[in-house]
Amino acid sequence: MAPMGIRLSPLGMAVFCLLGVGVIYHLYAGILTFLLSSCVCRQRKKVDLRDLLAVSVEAAQLGGEEVKRVRKENTLNEKSKGETKEGAKELLTMGDLQSHRKMYNLIKNTFPEITVYSEESDSKPDSVSWSRNIPDGILKLEKGREVSADSITVWIDPLDATQEYTEKLVKYVTTMVCVALEGKPVIGYALWMYFLIFKKSSYNLNSPKVIVSRSHSGEVKNFLHSAFGNSTTIIPAGGAGYKVLSLLKMHSGQTEPIDEADVYIHITVIKKWDICAGAALLNALGGHMTTLKGENIDFSGTPLNEGGLVASVEVDHKNILAKLPNWDLSKH
């Protein structure tokens, strides 16, 4: 089915596809993409996917408002949660916690029977409730697309790119929600504040522009040089959500434009709440997000994705995978 474009406001654009969704709410500029899919499920507690999509959008926006408020008030109160395997600090701020409280509790208060995983954990309750507001674009989707509650896993990242958030590198910051149905990402949304242009990809397979983690790069540069040669353009960036958006080659009125990349590659363990929303968005646009071996990622069960990551859209994904050297993630 062809996408349906709708004008939401002078500062936005939306695209709908009846496929699947993730949720990325970019705090400072962007595009809105909704996706929805139907399935035949067991006769148990049911959840209407249109309602869940509306709640996911509202949760991402509420979380984003908290992230922006804390940053503006400069009340981060940052502390370390530990270190990654590569030795980078994992930070926690009040922006992370306040966003988590709004996002997690909104979803659980509305759909108590579904499983929700968040990057953060906090026992402080929040009585936040769904406004029952369904944006016009979502209202156009057919109601009655119901699935069993126990087939749903929701992954939320209340503040992606915390390190960059503390450094005031806010262009990398997103809040993300993804709904997975039987382990497959099926609900996704991304909101940006300006009109954007999705440019048709033009890339050199032998030397693509590759975007990688700014703070968890590890040995990725040597890995990419082995795959594509020393002339490969490597773009370090913060936030998994931002890296996926860079693949869309979007332009906006920002003074600090989004990086443009052909491929997003990660060669160490990464959490599913970091990547689920991006996977849904790419799938909806005909792109791919796989492990380094080309396997589909199961977005259920354990939070860890231990197979690495290759993401692309309008790129020959199989040829990219074929060029990658063997890599033993258990040693890294």
TrEMBL record:
GO terms for biological process: phosphatidylinositol phosphate biosynthetic process. It is found in: Membrane. Keywords: Hydrolase, Magnesium, Membrane, Metal-binding, Transmembrane, Transmembrane helix. It is a single-pass membrane protein. It is an enzyme of class 3 (hydrolase). The chain crosses the membrane at residues 12-36. GO terms for molecular function: 3'-nucleotidase activity; inositol monophosphate phosphatase activity; metal ion binding. Its EC number is 3.1.3.25. The keyword Transmembrane helix applies. Pathway: Polyol metabolism; myo-inositol biosynthesis; myo-inositol from D-glucose 6-phosphate: step 2/2. One of its GO terms (cellular component) is Golgi apparatus. The keyword Magnesium applies. It catalyses: a myo-inositol phosphate + H2O = myo-inositol + phosphate. Mg(2+) binds at residues 119, 157, 159-160, 274. It comes from the Eukaryota. InterPro entries: CysQ/Inositol_MonoPase (IPR050725), Inositol_monophosphatase-like (IPR000760), Inositol_monophosphatase_CS (IPR020550). Its cofactor is Mg(2+). Belongs to the inositol monophosphatase superfamily. This is inositol-phosphate phosphatase. It comes from Xiphophorus couchianus (Monterrey platyfish).
